[in-house]
Amino acid sequence: MTGRRETLLRGGSQGIRVSRLAMAVGAGIFVGCIFAFAYPHGFFRSETPQTQQQRSSLQVSSAPCESSERTNLLKSEVNSLMEKNAGLKKQVRELTLKLQQEEQGKDQAQKQFLVLGKQHKAGPVGTVKSLRTNPTVLPDETVNPRLAKLLKKVAINRELIVALADIHVRDMLNVWSDSIKRVGIPNYLVVALDDDTLKYCESKGVPAYKRDPDDKVDSVLRTASNHAISGLKFQILREFLQLGYSVLLSDIDIVYLQNPFDHLYRDCDVESMSDGHDNMTAYGYNDVSEDPKMGWARFAHTMRIWVYNSGFFYIRPTIPSIELLDRVADRLSKAKLWDQAVFNEELYFPSHPGYDGLHASRRTMDFYLFMNSKVLFKILRHEHNFAQYKPVVLHVNYHPDKLPRMKAIVEYYVNGKQDALKAFPDGSDW
Ligand SMILES: *[C@@H]1O[C@H](CO)[C@@H](O)[C@H](O)[C@H]1NC(C)=O
C-alpha cells in the first residue's frame, strides 16, 4: 500500500499537470472521505446489476485523476485505523480484566494452578472429568509437634476417627468407645476437653489427647461464650488437617457396627452423613414450587437436599477443607448460630454478588450404611426386610433419649435381641 502511494505522489510533480492532478487528488480525497464515512463497508457492496454497470463507467471516467484508487486507498486506511482501534479496545479490556482479577486475588490462583499442573486440552466427548479430588496440603508438623508425634502412632494410612468429649458425656463415650473396640478399629482418638475425661479415657485404654493448657484454642474454651465453644470443634480439626491427616469427625452419640474406613470413597473434600431419610432427601431433588398468579410460568424449580450432619463427616486435608473449617469457625465466633446450619451454608451456597462461595467437593454417604436414627426408628425397623440392612454406624441424632437408644441398638445388632428397639417411639414425645 505504502509503496503504491509514493508512486502516485511522485507521478504528479510537473507543470500544469500538477495543479490539475492536485485538484483531482483533492476532489478524490474529499469524495473518498465521504465514501469512507458514509459507507464504511464499501459503497459498492449490496449492489444491483444496474449499479454494477454504473460502477464500471465510473471507473473508466475517473481513471485519469485516479480518484477511485484514492478512495480505495483511503477506505483501506480508515479500515486499518478502525482495526487498530478495535485492537486497542481489546487490549484495554484485557488489562482491565487482569486488574480486576488481580484485585480479587484470582489471577494469583490461576498462576498457582499453572505452576502446579500443566494446562491440558479437553479430550474427546466422554473422556472429560473435572477435578473433585483436590491435592492434599504439605504436612506442617510445626503447628503442633506433640500432636504430630501422637498421630504417627494412632493413625493408619494418615486417617483416623476424632471425637471431642467432656466429662458430661461420659456414659455415651463409654458405649461409643466400646463399640469401636468391638469392631476392631485401632485408629481413633478422643480430644478430651477436661482432665477428668483424659483420665477416664486413659483408665479405659482409649487413645486420648488433651491440648496444652496455654494453647490459644483452650483459653478460648475457658473464658468463652457459647459461640466460641461451638466453633471449637472446627478450630481443633484444623490442626489435624494441617498435619496432613484425613479426619473422620465423630459425635459421641454414635454406635459403630462395622469399620467405616472400609466404606469410604475418599474422592471429595468432604464426605458426610446425611440428615435425609430417603434417596431424594439424602441425595438431592428438584422440588417444584408453584405460584398460580404467574399463570403460564407458575412452576419454579428449586434444588433441595437435607443437610449434611456436621456430627459425622470425613474431611480430607485439602485447601478447600481447611478454608471450610476457617469459615465456619469464624462465623460461629461472631454470632450465635447453629454450627450444622453454618457448615451446610458454607458448603452449598454458590458465589453471588458480595460473596465468594467455597466450592469444596462433597459426597453424601450412603444413608443406609451411615444411618441416622430417623431412618432406623421411624422407617426401617417397620419394613419387612429390615434384617437385610447392615449399617456401618448408627447416629442417634434425631432423638433426645440418646443413651438408652444407643444401648438398645447395641442389644439389637450386637446381642441379637429382636425386641430391643420395640419400646421406643418413632419420634420423641417432646
Ligand atoms: C435409591 O437409590 C438406589 C441407588 O442409589 C437404588 O438402588 C434404589 O432402588 C433407590 N430406591 C428407591 C426407593 O428409589
Question: Could you characterize the architecture of this molecule?
Answer:
This protein has 430 residues and is an alpha/beta fold. The protein has a domain of 200 residues: Spore Coat Polysaccharide Biosynthesis Protein SpsA, Chain A (Alpha-Beta Complex), CATH 3.90.550. Helix content is 48%, strand content 13%. It contains 16 helices and 12 strands. A 7-stranded mixed β-sheet has the order 3-2-1-4-9-6-10, with helices on both faces. The protein has a 3-stranded mixed β-sheet with strand order 5-12-11. A hairpin with an 8-residue loop joins strand 7 and strand 8.
Secondary-structure element order, N to C: HHHHHHEHEHEHHHEEEHEEEHHEEHEH
Q: Proportion of β residues?
A: 5-15%
Bound molecules: 2-acetamido-2-deoxy-beta-D-glucopyranose
* Coarse morphology: elongated
Strands of the widest sheet, in order across it, are 3-2-1-4-9-6-10
Radius of gyration: 37 Å
GO molecular function: glycosyltransferase activity
Keywords: Cell wall biogenesis/degradation, Coiled coil, Glycosyltransferase, Golgi apparatus, Membrane, Signal-anchor, Transferase, Transmembrane, Transmembrane helix
InterPro entries: Nucl-diP-sugar_transferase, Nucleotide-diphossugar_trans, RRA1/2/3
Enzyme class: transferase
Highlighted features:
430 residues; alpha/beta; Spore Coat Polysaccharide Biosynthesis Protein SpsA, Chain A; seven-stranded mixed sheet; three-stranded mixed sheet; 12 strands; 13% strand; disordered N terminus; coiled coil; Nucl-diP-sugar_transferase; transmembrane helix; transmembrane; Glycosyltransferase
